[in-house]
């Protein structure tokens, strides 16, 4: 294995600045405001109470079978035994940011030449550790993606079944869609060449998957879903074509009152939109270029062994097909197709070799520019949360949208801001922090993790 030691260059310093600024933003914030993350920290506190004082939270029901999305909750619960609740959440986010730096360096050490490793690491970090899913607070997805990236970095033909099993279980308990990607890659590897080590390694997570499906059926748990759907083929195609641009580094944060941070700075907003389009266009060129180069002339694509190259190439093509065909709702997951695009990009770097170097060296500059803009904006907002006049009383609570068009729902959701896209309402679940402070646990927003039901709390429950 190549050494992951390196002498810091310009790109490494810029990445370090980005990470330090993000860590400082999390530390200075009144609470770890990051969209869905408040709900997951809230559920972690409920699980802690189940362990310490079950009578106080007896109106919540915990799944009696293995469930994806559980690992993040368990980690937050564990950290809450060491830190106060808000600091447990902050510690989790900081540790994840630092872990992403380590795993991206490990990944780059294997798949990227030293001459452009710094630029590639910066692009990859912005596309994984600080991807759009991070800003949405999708910590279970981020955790699963971290384990998948780690697995990609170390997996070879001779990897033991124990390693396959450990990563399979970690990914299963983190997020179902990433587990499907994990299973797809190893399934293709088995089809190309039978290997009983892989079969044995996949067995524990496969059994957990079956147990999960049977357990949900017996418990009569219906997949949680929102009512909004694509209104027709034209809207579905428009959504599929435009969604990848959301994965660019520029983000516009929504304030508690519903307006956005850039409400009066249109030139910055539209520059960011153009930057996202340019970045994603180049990332798409990398993915499509790698696929085309492999199909045209395999031997010059990568120095990896042919069996692994074929596995990654076939997996990439099937992931593209899944993205194009996946419905908006897929077994309780919204926009499941969008969740597979980041693993697709990772595989492009794994398979691409030197052919993607020119694009990465161009791509790195808009990526760092707009990533720094986004993180600086978040830092500014977190600094504002410490001011006495900063109020979250007007922060919106996200409810299920009305039935009908997904795009119409987006217009309604952001009715108070002039911008309808690239918005991140990081304060949306701020009411959960108040409930954590007062230990008044009431209701569940998400029911697809360890906690699957919540009855109304009665007066005698305290």
Low-confidence stretches: none
- Report helical residue fraction: 55-70%
* Major beta-sheet overview: 2 strands, antiparallel
The strand count comes to: 8
Number of helical elements: 18
Give the N-terminus to C-terminus distance in angstroms.
55 Å
Strand order of the largest sheet: 1-8
Encode the helix/strand succession as letters. HHEHHHHHHHHEHEHHEEHHHEHEHE
Indicate the overall shape: globular
Class by SSE composition: mainly alpha
Strand content: under 5%
Mean pLDDT: 88
- How many separate domains make up the residues? 1
Provide the gyration radius in Å: 22 Å
Verbal overview:
With 462 residues, the chain is mainly α. It has one domain (10-454). Helix content is 60%, strand content 4%. It is built from 18 helices and eight strands. The protein has helices spanning 10-28, 37-52, 70-80, 85-111, 117-128, 132-135, 139-154, 161-172, 176-192, 196-218, 233-242, 266-296, 306-325, 336-339, 341-352, 357-384, 406-413, 431-438; strands at residues 60-62, 228-229, 252-253, 329-330, 333-334, 404-405, 423-424, 451-454. The strands form four sheets. A two-stranded antiparallel ribbon has the order 1-8. Helix 1 (10-28) runs antiparallel to helix 4 (85-111), helix 1 (10-28) runs parallel beside helix 5 (117-128) and helix 4 runs parallel beside helix 7. The protein is globular and about 60 Å long. The protein starts with 9 loop residues before the first helix and ends in an 8-residue tail after the last strand. 42% of the residues are buried.
